[in-house]
Input
Amino acid sequence: MNRRKIVASVTAVFLLAGSIPPVQIHAEDFSDEEYWIKKCSAVQPTQEDADLCTQFKNAYASRQQEVEQQISELQQQIENIGNDIDEIAALAREQYALVQELDAQIALKEGADDAADMLMKTSQLLRYGLDNQKRISSLRNEIEMIGKYIEIQKKRLGKRVRFILEYGDGQEQISNISMPGMILQPLVENALQHGLHDVTENGEVVISIQQQDNVITISVSDNGKGMKPQDLEELILNDYQMKGGTHLGLYNVIRRLEMYFHDQIQISLHSDEGCGFEVFMEIRQNIQ
Output
């Protein structure tokens, strides 16, 4: 007796007895997908087969949807890992370049004390970047590290770029909220690489951190070449990535902030051609 007849016979006995409901077919009953696909392809299936096939198709569609969702999640994880590797590699290259420059100064015995101090700051930045790329840090740690980064960039860029770091009435007046690490440095680096790349003088980067009640605002802006409105719109629509893989630092920063703060953070970009570029964040916290 084949499977269809067994199912039909058992169901009939239960129905006649009147005490047990018809057997419900579950997804695990359809493990032999090839068998059921062939059966459900019949030109004129019986009513019993039609009902079973409807259940099979629903179960098959549900399993297919689950598999597609898993594939999508894996693809996103792979993409995120790739972006993180790119960002870490970019950080390592920049820090290596800084070390090379400072080593050269030491070798020439010009400003050896300053070079040694910069080398120490570079080492601390590199360690912080590697340790906090995937960890939770704090706003005060971020302020401390961006201060070291600014000192290094001042040595490198001289009078080409002026850096302004401001935080209300003082750092101690800003709530030390938890946040992802490596947020401010990539934004300043983005300003130097894109907005101020070709500047020879009068460049400016402003990092402003303010707090009013339970709202903390963070702004990183430059007075560089800016972006055309259509390019800015494209950047936002493409999740803060441009063709050619540019602005990866910006993409990673915004992605990590939104994953951590969810609806507690609002992020906006402001720019126009010849008018600089600004990343503005507003974080609403339940300050204790």
The chain is about 55% helix and 15% strand.
